[in-house]
């Protein structure tokens, strides 16, 4: 009997390649998300530090110009935080999209993979039947020779 050959092997390789690409994109999206979250955390820490510094300065004499500078800087940091939160939300959406794409690619690959497994199992069963047929034939021929020689 011929060696096992899966007709859809090329499709299986293609699906595996798609799955690997989806995994790479997911990893990149995950890295980007973590970076955006880190930037947001930095902005929030800057805001907190600035508020602490303002509180310390208020304990001593504070000029209007200094207070105005702090106010402008705090407003700028709050705008930066709002902008960064939007970037984090966009990165989360991109991460979710990449996750869905990877799950879809995995399902597509598993579909063909399962088909290959079933076909291989069918091939092995056919091979077993063929071997059994040959053994039965050999047994019958040996029996007939033994019967003729008696």
In summary, what is this structure?
By secondary structure, this protein is mainly alpha-helical. 91% of the residues lie in helices and 0% in strands.
Blueprint (SSEs and pairs):
Layout: H1 9-59, H2 64-149
Helix pairs in contact: 1-2
Describe the structure.
This protein is mostly helical and about 150 residues long. It has a domain at about 10-110. It is built from two helices and no strands. Helix 1 runs antiparallel to helix 2 (about 65-150). The longest helix is centred in the C-terminal third of the chain and has 86 residues, at about 65-150. The mean pLDDT is about 95.
- Quickly give the structural class: mainly alpha
C-alpha Rg, in Å?
Answer: 35 Å
What is the average of the pLDDT values? 93
Low-confidence spans: pLDDT under 50, at least 5 residues?
A: none
Number of strands: 0
Order of helices and strands: HH
**Which percent band covers the strand fraction?**
under 5%
- The percent of residues in helical segments reads over 70%
Termini separation: 35 Å
Contiguous helical run count: 2
**Given the C-alpha coordinates, what overall shape results?**
rod-shaped
Summarize the main sheet: none
């Amino acid at each position: 009997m011929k060696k096992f050959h899966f007709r859809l092997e090329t499709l299986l390789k293609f699906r595996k390649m798609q799955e690997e690409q989806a995994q790479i994109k997911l990893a990149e999206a995950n890295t980007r998300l973590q970076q955006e979250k880190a930037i947001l955390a930095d902005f929030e820490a800057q805001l907190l530090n600035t508020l602490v510094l303002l509180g310390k300065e208020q304990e001593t004499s504070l000029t209007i110009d200094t207070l105005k500078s702090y106010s402008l800087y705090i407003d700028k940091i709050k705008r930066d935080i709002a902008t960064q939160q939007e970037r984090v939300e966009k990165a989360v959406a991109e991460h979710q999209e990449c996750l869905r794409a990877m799950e879809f690619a995995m399902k597509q690959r598993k579909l063909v993979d399962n088909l290959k497994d079933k076909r291989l199992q069918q091939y092995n069963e056919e091979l077993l039947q063929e071997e059994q047929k040959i053994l039965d034939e050999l047994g019958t021929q040996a029996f007939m020779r033994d019967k003729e020689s008696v």
